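ok here's Pyrroline-5-carboxylate reductase catalytic N-terminal domain-containing protein:
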Amino acid sequence: MKIGIIGTGPIGSTLAKKLGNAGHEIKVTSKSSEHELSETAKKLGVGHSSLQNIAKDVDIVIVAIPTSAIPTLPKNLFEGISDKVIVVDTSNYYPTRDGIMPVFDNQLESVWVSEQLGRPVVKAFNNLLAYSLENEGRPNAEDNRVAMAISGDDENAKKIISQLIDEVGFDAVDSGNLSESWRHQPGMPSYCTELNAKELTLALADKDEIKRQAATLRDKSMEIFISLTEPPTHEYVLNILRSLFPTNPKR
Ligand SMILES: NC(=O)c1ccc[n+]([C@@H]2O[C@H](COP(=O)([O-])OP(=O)(O)OC[C@H]3O[C@@H](n4cnc5c(N)ncnc54)[C@H](OP(=O)(O)O)[C@@H]3O)[C@@H](O)[C@H]2O)c1
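and the structure:
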């Protein structure tokens, strides 16, 4: 498939490499200059394009930039682009990074992203750390793979993105419509805790009450990470995230 990726941070660049290696035709974009972008793309072994042209002549656009940057994307990004082009939102809102965005007191993150982009979105690639995405993928013949959550309103689009999740080494677990995407937002037991498909299915089915604690737990985890004097190991980050949720299957 032809895939355009907005953002070449840890998520965008890891997806570019892995999906390129899986045989897809990838182009990336970011807010960097043409020269810097072409150097980045060369290192990743993929193509690049201007932000304005990233949605042209592709089957899928993956948005992998900070939540607060989404409103700065060109308003006409999808003008004249077929409705068949699938848009994937990987973003997670962190007030410590994005600034406080009161809109999320009343609206789900990816529902807001969809409104900002003026297109339906599939939420995916958001509930694993970039480290996990890069290092924990396994061939689908293997048992007990790490699983990734996906949500969205278009079943066919979810099927196609679930196939990509499989190709980059993870089992996809459907969390339901986009209105259920809170189940894999930061502060939830499913979030960056590296569960297998059975465990993730359980974590995603968690009761609504846990939704009320999510923002507090998200901010508590960030406070812990910000207070560290040395970069934490991946194992340490996983253990902190797992320990926050009484219902986490791997606690
Ligand atoms: N890192 C993780 O472990 C992780 C895990 C799951 C989900 N996520 C979510 O996935 C998204 C991407 O995260 P990330 O860590 O890969 O990278 P990030 O640090 O959130 O984003 C960096 C990328 O966004 C680009 N960017 C920023 N503003 C832009 C704009 N206005 N237009 C175009 N590009 C813009 C930057 O361009 P330049 O390169 O030109 O500066 C850079 O390539 C975030 O929402 C994050 O919360 C992250």
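+1. The mean pLDDT is 96.
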